[in-house]
Amino acid sequence: MPITSKVDKIKNLTIFTLTGELTIDKILGALKSFWEAHELTLNTLWDARNAVVTNLKSSEIENIAGLIGQYRNRFEERKDGKAAIVATTDLQYGLSRILGTFYEREDVPIKLQPFRTMEEAIKWLGQS
User: Fold this and answer.
1) What global pTM score does this model have?
2) How many domains, the chain?
3) How confident is the model over 21-65, as pLDDT tens digits?
4) The 3-8 sheet, strands edge to edge
5) Strand pairing partners for 13?
């Protein structure tokens, strides 16, 4: 399974683990499931260390921000929330930065930040 998720209600954190070859449809499916969940967590951690993103195009990344924009009615629940992406390859990191640009353009009120290491991401999320 390319994308799995685990919710830690105590830490108010959803951790997505991405493995293998990813497609835009798989990413959009995981996001839809998250945004349609009864209870959202404030923060998310996207662990892409074992993901292959060579078939993703920067133009497809814009679809992610567009989908998130469709769930604006849920933003209040995540106001001041953060989304960290652990991206170890240059391609993963670059696509994550592009996504951050689309977040800003769509005026998404959630901070999105890519990181090269899990330790940096966890620290930024305020997790131990």
Assistant:
1) 0.90
2) 1
3) 999 999 999 999 998 887 889 999 999 999 999 888 888 888 888
4) 3-8, 13-21, 43-52, 82-86, 111-115
5) 8, 43
